[in-house]
Amino acid sequence: MYLLGTESVEALKPHIKEWRNDYYEEKENYIRLQDLKRLDLPMYRRGIVLQALRKMAGFFTRYPIYESEEERTDDKELMFEYRQLEAILQILEEENIPLGFQIEALGGMGEAFGNKKKKASYLELCVQVFRDRKKGQDMEQWEKTMAKTVLDGSPEACCLCLKVLKQYKDEAYKDIYLSCAANSSKQVRALLLDICREHREWEPDILKLLEAKKVKEREFAVMLLEEWGAVSCLPKLQEALGREKNKKLAEQMQDFIEELQGALAGADGQGRSQNANERLAAEIFRGNRKRKVEWVQSLSLPEVHRKDGSPVSAEYMFALLALYADMEEPGIPKNAKKLAESLDAESLADYMQMLYEGWMSAGAEAKKRWVLYAVSVHGGSRMVPVLHSQIKIWAENQRGAIAAETVQALALNDSPQALLLVDHMSRKFKFRQIKNAAGAALQNTASLLGISREELEDRLVPDLGFDSKMEQMFDYGSRKFTVRLNQALEMEIYDGNGKRLKNMPAPGKQDDPEKAASSNQAFKQMKKQLKETITSQKLRLEQALSVARFWEADRWKALFVQNPVMHLFAEGLIWGIYEGQECRGAFRYMEDGTFNTVEEEEFVLPETGKIGLVHPLELTAEDLKAWKEQLADYEIVQPFDQLGRPVCKATKEEQESLPVSRFADAPLNGLTLSGRLLGMGWFRGEILDAGFFENYYRNDGAFGAELVFSGSSVGYEYDEVTIKELYFYRLSPEDAKSSAHRAFENGSRCLPGEVPGRYFSEVLLQVAKAVGEQVQNLD
Questions:
Q1: 228-256: buried (b, 16+ CB within 10 Å) or exposed (e) per residue?
Q2: d(CA 223, CA 221)
Q3: pLDDT band at residue 23 under the 50/70/90 scheme
Q4: What value does the mean pLDDT take over residues 642-661?
Q5: Is 699 helix (H, G, I), strand (E, B) or coil?
Q6: Considering just the CA atoms, what is the radius of gyration of the chain in Å?
Q7: What's the CA gap between 148 and 730, in Å, rounded?
Q8: Between 779 and 33, whose confidence is greater?
Q9: φ, ψ at 596 (rounded to 5°)
C-alpha cells in the first residue's frame, strides 16, 4: 500500500525492526524498479525507501541513484561513491524518513560487504556523508536522534553513530558514548573502548559504572581501567569486588587488584605489565590462532630476550605472530605493540629476520603474507633494504599483488628511511600497481596522523645528518673528514687540514678500526640517501610548481629554512607570496638567510600568508629576464628548470572547445609514449580485453587530464600509435583522492578556459615532451 501511495511512511515503522536481519534480495524486482525511474513515477522514490529500510544493498550496487547517463552498472564500487550515498539519503529525507531510520538503513547495508576492509571503507564514507548533511539541521533534534540510535539501534547503526559523533569534540557527547557501555555487541564495545581509551579524564564516570546494575557495564569499566592501568582506582575496585556476584568478572577484578597492589608495594611496574602480557599471550595462543602459526614451530628461530635480559618463551613469541596471522585487515594488530614493548629490540629483530628467511625459503606463500607485516613492524631498520629489494624482484616477476602488499608493510616500519622509500616509489616506479600501493600507504599514514599527504611528505624530508652550515663530520679516530653540501647539492669532502678530496678515503691501518668502519659505512649510506632525496624532492617541487601548491609561512620556514637539504633547494628557486591564486610579490632566499627582491632589495617575509613557487606565466617579460640574470650573477643553477621552462596559453578556440587537438595525429612509437608519460606521473587508462587501453591520465587534485590515443596493449606497445585528443577534467574531492581511472568517469570534462593557466601549460608541456615536439615553441 505504501508503494501505491495510499499509505504514508508511518505504516512502515512497525516493520523496520523485523527487517534488521532480512538481507534476502529480490533481484527480479530491480529491473521493475529501474523502469519506474525511467518513467519518472513517484513509486520509484517509494521503492528506493523500501529497499533502503530493508537494508538491501543489491539494487544500490547495480543502479546509480544519482543522475547518470548509465542506467545500470554491475560495478560493486557504486556503494563507495559519495554521490551514490548522498542521493539515497536525499530521497529518504524528501520522503520524510526520520534520521534514525536513515542511519539504520545505511549502517545495515554495510553488512552486504563480506570483506571487512571494504565494510570499513564503506562505513567511513557513510560517516563523511552524514557529517556533511548535519549542517542546517536542528541540532537539538539531531543529538536526540543520535542518542536514541546509540541506545536502541542495531549494532551497525550504533557504530555508525559513534563514528559520526567522533568527528566532533568527544567531551560534548560523553554521556551518549557511555550510554552504550551495556551493549553486548563486540563491534560496538571495541569501538567504544577505542574512543574512551583516549580520555583518562573520564575516570570518575567510568568508576561509577562499577556500581551499574548491568554486568556488561561493569565489565566495560574494568576493561577500560585495565587499559589505563589506573592505580588511583584501587579503593573503588576493592569496593566493587566486595559486591560483585558475577564469578568471571570477580576473578578478573581480583587479578587486576593484585597487579595494582604489586605496583603500590614498590614494584617498578615492569613485573605487573609482564604478568599481564603473559596472560594476554596465553589467551591469544590457542584454538584457531594457534593452528595458523603451527608451521613456524618447524623453523629454527633464535631466542628472544626481554629488556631485563630474561628469556622469552617460544609460546609468547608464537602468540605475537598469531596476532598477525589472524588479522582481518593488513596493519598492526591490536595488542601486538603491547606484547613487544618489553622485548629487547635487537634479539626481536634477529628473530624476525630468521622468520622472514624461513618464509622466503619455503616459497613465500601468499596466504602467509602476514609475515611481511610482522617483520616490518618488529624487524627494525635492517629489514628496510631487504623488503625494498624484494618489492622490485616480485614486481618484475609477475608477483605484483604480493609486491604491493610488501609496500603497505614497509610503510609501517619505524625507520624514517622506510617511508622515504615508499614516497619515492609513489612518484617513480615502473609498475603502476606498486606506485598506487605506495600512494595508498602514504595516504593511510597521513590519515592516521590527521594531516594531509603533502604535509606528511614534508615531514619525511631528512636532514641526513647535516648541520645548519650544511656540514657533517666523519670520525676515523686518527683522522676526521668534513662533508659539505654545495649550492648544486653536491658533496665536497675535506680532510682535517681543509684540503679538498676527490672521494672519502677508505679506513687505514692508523685509524681506529671500529670508528673508521662505522663512519665509512655511515658515509656510504648517507651518500645513497642523498641521491634518493634529491631525486624525489626535485620531482615533488616540480609537481608543486605544476599544481600551484602553497605552504603557510611557518610551515614553509620549517621545511625550507630549517632543513639543510631543502634550504639549498630553496636558494635556487623563485618564490611568491600568494593571496588566493594571485601572486602578490616574488622573492629569493639568499645564502646568508635573508630574502631578496627582483631589484635586489631586501624583502621582509610576512609572518602569515601563503608561499609557493612562481610560474613563468605569472612574471612579466622584464621580471623574468631580471630573475634569470640575478641567478646567473650568483652562479646559481636551478634544481629544475623553473624560469626557463616553456609556457603555453590556450588559444581562443581551445578555450571554448572540450578537446585540445594541437597534438592530434602526431605519430610515435607506443613504447616511447608509455615510457615518457609513466615517467612523468601519468597512468594507463582502463585496461580492457587482451590488455588493450586507449588513454593515459593524471590526477592532480581538483583537476586532471586525459590523453586519448589510437590504443595499444600492455606488454605489446612496440607498434606506432597516433595521438588523438587531450581532455581536462574537474574532479570532486572524493575523486581527487583516487588514482583509479574511474575518477575520470565520475568527474566532468571541462573547457581549457576553466583550467588554471599554469596547470594547462604544465600538462601541455608534458604531452609535448612525450610526443617529442619542440617544447620551446609550444605557444
A1: bebeebbebbeebbeebeeeebeebbeeb
A2: 5
A3: very low
A4: 89
A5: strand
A6: 31
A7: 40
A8: 33
A9: -130, 145
- Spatial CA neighbour of 316 closest among 290, 355, 353, 288: 290
pLDDT for res 777: 43
Indicate whether this model's pTM tops 0.70. Answer: no
Distance CA(523)–CA(493), nearest Å, equals 11
Are the C-beta atoms of 282 and 319 separated by less than 8 Å? yes
Residue bearing cell 587479578: 255
pLDDT band at 24 (very low <50, low <70, confident <90, very high): very low
What are the distances in angstroms from CA 777 to CA 218, 646, 650, 657? 76, 7, 14, 22
pLDDT digit string, tens, across residues 376-410: 999 998 999 999 999 999 988 888 889 999 998 99
Long-range contacts of 7-11 (CB under 8 A, 24+ apart): 8/96, 9/49, 9/95, 9/96, 9/97
Quick one: pLDDT band at residue 452, thresholds 50, 70, 90?
Answer: confident
User: Quick one: cell of 719?
Assistant: 607498434
Per-residue exposure over 498-525, b if at least 16 CB sit within 10 Å of its own CB, e if not: eeeeeebbebeeebeeebbeebbeebee
Closest CA to 171 of 143, 149, 194, 202: 202
Nearest to 19 by CA among 45, 50, 59, 47: 50
Give the C-alpha separation, 569 to 560, whole Å. Answer: 8
Distance of alpha carbon 103 from alpha carbon 98, whole angstroms = 9
Measured in degrees and rounded to the nearest 5, phi and psi for residue 459 equal -65, -25
Give the C-alpha separation, 642 to 664, whole Å.
28
Amino acid of residue 287: G
Mean pLDDT is lowest, of 39-43, 372-376, 660-664, for 39-43
Residue ranges in 299-366 assigned as alpha helix (H) = 314-325, 336-340, 345-361
- 539's grid cell: 620531482
Would the CA dihedral through 49, 52, 53, 56 be positive or negative?
positive
Sheet holding 574-579, edge to edge: 550-552, 610-613, 574-579, 582-589, 595-596
* Cα separation, 244 vs 255, whole angstroms: 14
3-state secondary structure 127-183: HHHHHHHCCCCCHHHHHHHHHHHHHHCCHHHHHHHHHHHCCCCHHHHHHHHHHCCCC
Cell numbers found for residue 239 = 569496593
Give the CA distances from residue 122 to residues 54, 81, 85, 114, in Å, rounded to whole numbers and listed in that order: 18, 9, 10, 12
Query: Is residue 173 over pLDDT 80?
Result: yes
Task: Give the whole-angstrom CA distance, residue 169 versus residue 58.
Answer: 35
Q: What is the DSSP string of 549-617?
A: -EEEHHHHHHHHTSSHHHHHHHHTSEEEEEETTEEEEEEEE-TTS-EE-TTS-B-PPPSSSEEEEPPGG
Place of cell 612518484: 427
Q: Taking the CB of residue 767, how many other CB atoms lie within 10 A of it?
A: 27
Tell me if 421 sits within 8 A of 384, measured CB to CB: yes
How is residue 601 written as a grid cell? 632589495
Rounded-to-integer distance, Cα 473 and Cα 375, Å: 33
Which contacts (CB < 8 Å, 24+ apart) does range 645-648 have?
A: 645/616, 645/765, 646/765, 646/768, 646/775, 646/776, 646/777, 646/778, 646/779, 647/615, 647/616, 647/617, 647/761, 647/765, 647/778, 647/779, 648/760, 648/761, 648/764, 648/765, 648/778, 648/779
Residue 384, C-beta contacts closer than 8 angstroms, at least 6 positions apart:
410, 413, 415, 417, 418, 421
Kindly state the greatest CA–CA separation across the chain. Answer: 99
Average pLDDT over every residue of 253-272: 67
- pLDDT-derived band at 13 (thresholds 50, 70, 90) equals low
Cα–Cα dist 172/554, whole Å:
32
pLDDT in tens, 583-607: 989 999 998 889 999 999 999 888 8
Per-residue DSSP letter, 698 = E
